[in-house]
Amino acid sequence: MRAAGQQLAAALLLFAAVCGAARAEVIDDILGSLNRGASFLERQHEHINLDGVVGFLMLQAELKEAVRTWPHSDPVSWAQRTTAVALVKRLDQTFDKAVAALQQNDPKYYREFEPLMSWTFWVIPPGLSATDPSLVYPSTVTTECYDEQLSDKCLTLLLGTWKMNGTPCIVTKPCRDTMTQFGCPHYSLSHQLLYFMIGKMRGCTNLLKGDTRPSRENMTERSYEKIFCSNMMKTNQDIIRDGLTEQTVDIFIENILICGLAGFSDFYKADWLQHILRLQDEEVGCFGRDKSVISQIIGDELLEQLQPHRRVKRREKILPAGRNINGGSSGRLFQSHDGGGCRRSGRIPELLPVRTGHNEEAALLKPPSLPPASLPPHGVRSH
C-alpha cells in the first residue's frame, strides 16, 4: 500500500501522544508528513483506488484516537493537537469525494468491500503487545502462497458481501487452510494477518471453528496474529540489515502499518520512522518514489494539462511501477501496493491550524450515526 507511510506516521503519533515518549519536534515532523499525505489525497481523490482509500481510512482511525487521547500538558502540545484536529477535518471532507469516485468507477468491487469504507471499521486495539522471535519460521517457501481470487473471496465471505444480503462470517475450509498456513513469506503474511483482523473487526467469533488438526487445538486468532507479526518483524529486520531498496520498501512499510494496527508496539521504532519520513516526496506527498520517476510524473501531468481533451480510460491508467491505479483484475484489495500512486497536481497548500470549538471537535470524533460497517456481530458458519 503506497498510503502506508501516512498510516505509520499516524500510529507513531498515537503512540507518542499516549506514552509521552516523543519530542515535540518529532511530532511536528509527523504532522508535516501527514499534512503532505492529506494534500495528496485532496488532489488525487478521483484516481486513488480502493486499497489506497482504505489505507487513508486506517490513518483517520489512528488520528482520531490520537486526538481523543492527546495530553494537554503545555501550549506546544495543545497547538499540535489543534493541527491534528484540523487535519481530521480535512480528511473527513475529502473521504466523501474519494468514496463517491470509487463507487462510480467500479461499483461491483466497491460493493464487495463497502464495509471497509468507514474509519469506524478500523478500531484501535485496547492494549499493546510485542512479537516473539521464537515464533519465526525456520524456513519459508520461496513463492507467495496465496491465490488472489481466493483471497478476495475469503474476505467477501467474512464481510457478507459475497452476494446481496449475504450471510457474513462464513469460513470455508480452503479459506481457513490458506489463512492458517505456516511458512508463507512477504505479502502472504500480510494477507493472512489482515484476514484475522478484518474478521475480528467485522464481529466474527471463532474463525477457527472446524479446524480439527491436533497440532492446532490450542491455537487462537491472537496466536496466529502473533506468529504472523513475529515473522513480519524478522522480514523488516532483514530489510534494514541489507538496506532499504525500491523493491523492499513497500513490504517494509506495509508490515509496520498492519502489525502496528494489530497492536504490536515493537514495530514503533524511532529509526524506522526516520526511514519512512525520508521516503516521502515533500512536494508530491507520496512515499517510495525515486526522483527520476517523480520528474516523469510531473512531465506527464503537464502534458495532460496541455491536452485537456486527451483522456485516458481509468482502467488503463498505469502507475510508473507498472501497476494499475484502478485495475480491473480481481485480487486488488491490499494487492495493488502502489494504490495511492505518486502523482502531482500542483503545489501543496500549507496547513493553517484553526482553533476548533469543543462541540465541533466532538462531532469530528463521533462515529457516523449509521456507518456502512456498523453491523451486528455474528458467529462463524463453517462450510
Automatic annotation (TrEMBL):
InterPro entries: DUF4735. The gene is cunh16orf89. This is Chromosome 16 open reading frame 89. The lineage of its organism: Eukaryota, Metazoa, Chordata, Craniata, Vertebrata. It holds the Pfam family DUF4735. GO terms for cellular component: cytosol; membrane. Keywords: Signal. Residues 1-24 form the signal peptide. It comes from Dicentrarchus labrax (European seabass). Residues 326-347, 364-383 are annotated as: Disordered.
